[in-house]
Amino acid sequence: xxxxxxxxxxxxxxxxxxxxxxxxxxxxxxxxxxxxxxxxxxxxxxxxxxxxxxxxxxxxxxxxxxxxxxxxxxxxxxxxxxxxxxxxxxxxxxxxxxxxxxxxxxxxxxxxxxxxxxxxxxxxxxxxxxxxxxxxxxxxxxxxxxxxxxxxxxxxxxxxxxxxxxxxxxxxxxxxxxxxxxxxxxxxxxxxxxxxxxxxxxxxxxxxxxxxxxxxxxxxxxxxxxxxxxxxxxxxxxxxxxxxxxxxxxxxxxxxxxxxxxxxxxxxxxxxxxxxxxxxxxxxxxxxxxxxxxxxxxxxxxxxxxxxxxxxxxxxxxxxxxxxxxxxxxxxxxxxxxxxxxxxxxxxxxxxxxxxxxxxxxxxxxxxxxxxxxxxxxxxxxxxxxxxxxx
Length: 391
Description:
Blueprint lengths: L22 H6 L4 E5 L2 E6 L3 H10 L1 E5 L5 E5 L3 H8 L12 E3 L2 E2 L5 E3 L2 E6 L2 E5 L5 H11 L5 E4 L3 E6 L3 H9 L11 E6 L2 E6 L8 E6 L5 H11 L5 E3 L4 H6 L35 H7 L7 E7 L11 E5 L2 E12 L4 E8 L9 E6 L2 E8 L12 H5 L5
Parallel strand pairs: 3-15
Antiparallel strand pairs: 1-2, 3-11, 4-9, 4-10, 5-8, 6-7, 8-9, 11-14, 12-13, 13-14, 16-19, 16-21, 17-18, 17-20, 18-19, 20-21
């Protein structure tokens, strides 16, 4: 069956879909493309994807990512419960530290890949992808003999990403934010209310995420960020799909699902079998650790003219048969080619392997490539990286 692009489609706003604290500000600043993520509207594009790509790689972009929900786990047994959910060693996660982690099921499949924020000894946020993680946690809690409370924390997240993001953040929150290290968390004051800032993001660029618990401040915070970044050419925009693929950042539900194990998608480092107490999936992952994977996640370069992103996985073929699927695709302005992420049989995963992929414009050659395509620029504190020029 021929692939059909659904250009001109629209999305109806409905009461059953949450809008988040930054929805009205997003509308005022020109966002007219939204999608649904965790039963919440999330801004998709404000201007043009190419403009937004250059904004996040050269200047600073503000992305209201309201669908990135925070599943709060608290109570006397919160630390034990969070550890039971993940193969990461959470004993090494201090208060005000964040950890990129996997949540696994009994078969070793990936239920989600949240960033876990430790707010206190007995209070955590799981910053979740679009994966019903709250329902998973509630189901586990119903059967696990642990004293925990689980709720959606009602937080709206806004990302500030790009090489000039420290300058914007210092203007608004003071120079203390420049000392915040990668994957660390700090409280900040905004108009008399506490919010939280982490040195994380989904762009592959230096950046921050701001967690707003008071929804009434959504408009005011958005406006304040725009004012604080005016001198640095700030603009609203989604964290660009091309940039996250360049960086090798994976999207749960697209590049990874419950049908993949950590070892198949290059995330085996997040399975700390020798350090952690019991967790869901330990037996399966211990068994799978030394077995050859059934599939492997790879980078791909797709030849020919610029392609629009795929709406669904595209079949990858080699030796006359289907050997995998292309999961994410975008055109990289800096590399001047279409880049993609895919899952293939191990015998087709070697760098330089040529495959065929059915695209919008017909069959093209897809060559297995090193990933990430371009390095991330995320580590350290602003003072370390910018030597005092960020303020």
